[in-house]
Amino acid sequence: MAGREGGDGVGEADGPTRRLSDLDEDELLAQVVPRFAAASGPTPLMLLGPGDDAAVLAAPGGSVVATTDTMVRGRDWRDDWSGPGDVGAKVVAQNLADVAAMGARPTGILVTLVADPGTEVAWVLAFTDAVARACADAGVAVLGGDLSSAGPGTLTVSVTALGDLEGRDPVRRSGARPGDVVAVAGTLGLSDAGWRLLREGRPEADPEAVAVHRRPRPPLTLGPAAAVAGATAMLDVSDGLLRDGGRIGRAGGVVLDLDPAPLAGDVARLAPALGEQDARRAVVEGGEEHSLLATFPTDTTLPEGFRTIGRVRPAGVDGPGVTVAGVHAHGGGWDHFRP
User: Fold this and answer.
1) What is the average pLDDT across 51-56?
2) What is the pLDDT of residue 282?
3) 112 annotated ligand-binding residue
4) Which of 3, 48, 149, 322, by CA, is between 20 and 30 Å from 240?
5) Which residues in 101-224 belong to E strands, given as ranges?
């Protein structure tokens, strides 16, 4: 089928397909837990890993950042677009990006799987392998998790991610001040472009965009770097540049005024596959990119990997939020409860 991810999927079995209903919980865990351990191994902060009622993780900085995010089949992914490897990589990426956006270093995750007993065991193991690899690449420990069954067709995965502030204060959404520069680290619009191309049945028009939609690439190390550099506000672009920029603006009672000029390259990158208008919408409205959007004092030397895309202004008659070239902008982006 056009658009189906080629690797880390569920291949054809030589014998009868094994399903979760063919195993008990202990038998499944006996296959899952060693995969996590083999990929990531022990990390310096994991004092006690899976096997007891809870894991133990050191917090050298004295403060722990915690976040959680969930993906539901049919709502957050489609099986004909994304294989289990994609789902595993994405659910880790989006959670670790939230930790990095607070200025923290990700240290560990907990994984939950809620599945129809008819789910293939091979899907679960491919998902497990992808989670393990993503954590190993980020230097993050898999601390444990939970399993539960659900009704026919249900498949939900959830990750809780933890991070260490390393003695720093968290970078919140509410700290932007007039005169600050607005900067972004990472790509803009690629994930949304990939989603559009999959929906249109044209994934071959931009394979990189499709790959980023399936497996986002958040710049995790730049979250702590931004904090060290003095970032005044930060979040990850999960729901679109306008929607997330508006959140920073409203939290701080200011306006994030975006400059179209630095975004022109992002639009030009996507225009051959999408056309100019949809490329522009993808850049300013597209979600699931998980790049980092931050504000910095005007005299700050931005960490390498960040680029300036605007300026923080005082709120005007339209109130706090986001503008593009001085024009108030709103809407677009992802909303879980709207079609």
Assistant:
1) 85
2) 97
3) no
4) 3
5) 105-115, 141-149, 155-164, 181-185
